[in-house]
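Structure in, sequence out. Go:
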């Protein structure tokens, strides 16, 4: 049975027979055990941090180190444009630290290395499986790939609580619940560190939950919320899985930068008991003395040329001046060396040999299958039956490629293989079904994160002097703000929809292969340099109507319409529109001139040429898709967005008029299935009413097409659950802060806790997900007789039954209700435990989920202790945060 431990030594979750499931090299349990023994007698990935033999070996090394060598260990060296790295110290036999990014796979640090890695589904998908053993397997596979592509430190997992789905990096974490983040993070870490010679890095400490102003913003959080929400995943994962490294965040917390924040010492290393090393995020070391004294152990990337490091020589000087004590410098060295010794980096030099790509691809497919959440299935439209279909219309801007994934530092640029949704569906449907494909809209790209109306689609744009079949506008780009000299790029762009900056950095590319290519080509100068651009051509509407045309831009932009200025924009990112009346088929000359204001750090040019219109107005590409849907027996619309590090989402709408596409396809074909490829929830409420079947697929990784087909055709019975609430609209989630501070005024009422506190009903609640099977719950038993026993964990038991004729898995969830106290307000429901139970048709199983005493406690800021109030605590068991199948009480004595 799954326990929910919060303390070291508590019962560990079941892992299943992962060695048997994964046949790739390194997955033999025996082999791992043998290698672990080679590490040092008795030392294990969860005991390395308090092992006398490890301490002795570390002390012996530290005793031989000079001050300069200790400071060197505390200071990274950028070994190429991408990777975190730390030089070896050959004299002492200390190996280099070679780091690769995660968490969805190994981001191979050196772009010149000809190696591929497995692109797993987003961490939201991993968590949505509610399968702790599976997440362990993923961590193990990723750690294995890291080691065998030359890395010994994996910069993952991310356990940042997704306070809002608008956060650009919500897809990298395990959702909105702190317990789920902690338990999944722990499994991931244990998996990574099951590979001798590999350190996992838990990140980003702490309260990193938006991209906007992330280098300057201060998250304002009260002490109780810090303990109960934002630190909780770190506490659980540190105590259960003992990661060798932690990464502090870019942002400030209550006014002080995370990488020089007192919380590193008091909370992470103090209360949580972390004994590895804290490294900074990229250039997130704000100081020398403060950072060192407040607990930062390693600056990354560190030394990027003379005078660039805050540690390095400055740290040596601070030690010599007595501003940082030698004891603290020794502690830094000891904390870095402890996991290097204890987790086997000295004894297991990294390899650059092969791993079993096929086995890992199958694992990626399984994660995608188990993570998919069936949100709706009216009339049992799913699973699709090929024998009842003649024609199936697959629709969606990127359904014919596998580019739907998260961007930024986590992005896997060279997956080992890829299967598009269209190919997956075609392969599975078989030769008896005619599968048609229509895009419906242009491909999705970075520009789709900008606010404002949708980009004018390519099918109503014609470039000047282009070939008859050309769609889009003629584009010219200059590497200066004044259109001077020869353009550096001259091309046809499907839309004017540019969002340069961090997310277009060379190698980060989760954009559609059909979207404008200029993004990658000019990425570097657009990121760091000046930019001006001009687009020319004709706009030819397909419907006679009024169209507000507009510009969304940062900087100076003008739109000329038939030779006359129509819209002008200056200043910061905003939108301006003006309506024109267009007659179907009549061409109008368009010219857009754009000059970016000098770029901020990691922010290049941003401009979009937009339109809006009545709902019955459709661009030709959308009309074609609707015609396909009308002619088919059923339609599958695969929609996606663009989420990335470096930028937040402006809204929860789907970009490029995909919401309208869904509405129109569903009007044309009542048997329409929507597959949503977004890393975090998007809004369904503008189209949900007409659509009978919806599958939340998250970013489903490199095998996405196979996994989508597996679920659509019923080869896999869906069992994933929402790890974040699908809100009705943006008013139900915290907005992205735009100033210097992000007040976290909702306190502990994050995600579903807040909605339930306010009595607000979302579109789909946390924990929700349908199956092709049905399940029954009976006989709740709460064994609270001994709640004051040392651990105080309380077993909650019930009987679960598969009441259908299909094998399927239920994710049984236990929530506890409000705590019996008047001292603080507590959430109406909080996840306290769960178990994914696989059941044959008609099968019954007795399930016991152990509730840790900590789940019955709140953090008392006055006494600085966890308080467990005596009294009766409601306990709810069911299939989601709002589905109560069984209710009882726990009596805390
Ligand atoms: C990200 C980290 C990442 C680091 C190294 C930063 O931009 O915030 O998550 O590990 O880059 O690539």
């Amino acid at each position: 049975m799954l326990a929910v431990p919060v303390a070291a030594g508590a019962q560990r979750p079941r892992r299943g027979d992962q060695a048997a499931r994964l046949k790739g090299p390194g997955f033999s349990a025996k082999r791992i055990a043998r290698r672990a023994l080679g590490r040092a007698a008795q030392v294990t990935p969860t005991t390395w941090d308090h092992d006398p033999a490890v301490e002795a070996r570390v002390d012996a090394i530290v005793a031989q180190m000079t001050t300069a060598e200790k400071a060197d260990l505390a200071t990274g060296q950028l070994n190429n444009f991408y990777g975190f790295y730390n030089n070896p110290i050959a004299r002492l036999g200390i190996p280099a630290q070679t780091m690769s990014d995660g968490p969805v796979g190994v981001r191979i640090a050196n772009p010149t290395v000809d190696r591929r890695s497995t692109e797993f589904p987003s961490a939201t998908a991993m968590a949505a499986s509610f399968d702790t053993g599976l997440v362990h397997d993923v961590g193990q596979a990723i750690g294995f790939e890291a080691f065998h592509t030359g890395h010994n430190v994996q910069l993952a997992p991310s356990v940042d609580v997704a306070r809002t789905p608008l956060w650009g990096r919500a897809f990298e974490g395990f959702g909105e619940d702190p317990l789920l983040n902690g338990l999944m993070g722990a499994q991931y870490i244990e998996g990574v560190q099951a590979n001798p010679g590999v350190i996992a890095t838990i990140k980003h400490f702490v309260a990193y939950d938006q991209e906007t102003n992330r280098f300057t913003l201060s998250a304002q959080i009260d002490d109780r919320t810090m303990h109960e929400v934002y630190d909780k995943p770190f506490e659980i994962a540190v105590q259960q899985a003992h990661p060798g490294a932690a990464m502090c965040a870019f942002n400030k917390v209550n006014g002080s930068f995370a990488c020089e924040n007192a919380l590193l010492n008091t909370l992470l290393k103090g209360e949580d008991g972390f004994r590895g090393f804290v490294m900074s995020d990229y250039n997130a070391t704000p100081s020398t003395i403060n950072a060192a004294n407040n607990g930062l152990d390693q600056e990354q990337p560190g030394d990027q040329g003379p005078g660039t490091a805050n540690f390095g020589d400055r740290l040596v000087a601070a030690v010599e001046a007595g501003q940082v004590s030698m004891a603290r410098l020794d502690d830094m060295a000891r904390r870095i060396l402890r996991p290097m010794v204890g987790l086997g980096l000295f004894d297991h030099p990294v390899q650059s040999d092969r791993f079993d790509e096929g086995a890992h691809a199958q694992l990626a497919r399984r994660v995608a299958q188990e993570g998919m959440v069936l949100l709706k299935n009216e009339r049992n439209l799913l699973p699709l039956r090929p024998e009842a279909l003649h024609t199936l219309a697959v629709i969606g801007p990127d359904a014919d490629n596998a580019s739907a994934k998260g961007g930024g530092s986590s992005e896997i640029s060279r997956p080992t293989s890829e299967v598009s949704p269209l190919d997956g569906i075609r392969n599975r449907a078989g030769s008896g079904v005619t599968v048609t494909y229509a895009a419906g809209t242009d491909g999705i790209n970075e520009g789709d994160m900008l606010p404002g109306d949708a980009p004018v689609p390519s099918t109503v744009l014609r470039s000047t002097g282009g070939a008859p079949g050309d769609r889009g506008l003629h584009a010219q780009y200059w590497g200066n703000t004044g259109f001077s000299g020869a353009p550096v790029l001259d091309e046809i762009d499907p839309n004017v929809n540019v969002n340069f900056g961090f997310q277009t950095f060379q190698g980060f590319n989760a954009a559609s292969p059909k979207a404008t290519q200029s993004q990658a080509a000019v990425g570097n100068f657009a990121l760091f340099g000046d930019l001006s651009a001009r687009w020319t051509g004709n706009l030819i509407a397909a419907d006679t109507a009024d169209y507000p045309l507009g510009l969304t831009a940062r900087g100076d932009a003008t739109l000329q319409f038939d030779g006359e200025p129509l819209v002008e924009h200056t200043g910061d990112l905003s939108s301006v529109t003006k309506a024109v009346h267009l007659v179907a088929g009549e061409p109008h000359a368009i010219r857009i001139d754009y000059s970016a204001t000098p770029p901020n750090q990691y922010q290049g040019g941003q401009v979009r040429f937009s339109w809006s219109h009545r709902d019955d107005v459709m661009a030709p590409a959308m009309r074609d898709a609707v015609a396909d849907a009308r002619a088919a027996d059923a339609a599958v619309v695969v929609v996606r967005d663009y989420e990335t590090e470096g930028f937040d989402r402006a809204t929860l709408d789907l970009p490029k008029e995909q919401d309208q596409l869904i509405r129109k396809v569903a009007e044309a074909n009542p048997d329409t299935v929507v597959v949503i490829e977004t890393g975090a929830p998007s809004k369904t409420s503008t189209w949900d009413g007409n659509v009978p079947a919806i599958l939340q697929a998250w970013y489903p990784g490199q095998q996405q097409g196979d996994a989508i087909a597996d679920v659509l055709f019923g080869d896999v019975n869906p069992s994933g659950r929402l790890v974040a609430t699908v809100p009705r609209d943006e008013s139900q989630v915290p907005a992205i802060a735009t100033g210097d501070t992000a007040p976290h005024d909702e306190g502990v009422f994050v995600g579903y806790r807040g909605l339930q506190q306010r009595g607000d009903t979302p579109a789909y609640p946390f924990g929700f997900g349908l199956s092709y099977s049905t399940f029954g719950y009976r006989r709740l038993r709460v064994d609270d007789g001994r709640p004051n026993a040392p651990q105080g964990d309380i077993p909650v038991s019930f009987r679960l039954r598969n009441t259908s004729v299909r094998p399927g898995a239920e994710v049984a969830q236990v929530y506890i209700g409000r705590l019996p106290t008047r001292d603080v307000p507590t959430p109406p429901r909080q996840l306290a435990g769960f178990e994914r139970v696989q059941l044959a048709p008609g099968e019954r199983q007795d399930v016991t989920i152990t509730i840790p005493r900590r789940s019955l406690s709140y953090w008392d800021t006055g006494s600085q202790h966890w308080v467990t109030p005596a009294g009766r605590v409601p306990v709810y068991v069911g299939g989601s945060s709002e589905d109560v199948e069984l209710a009882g009480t726990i009596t805390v004595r």
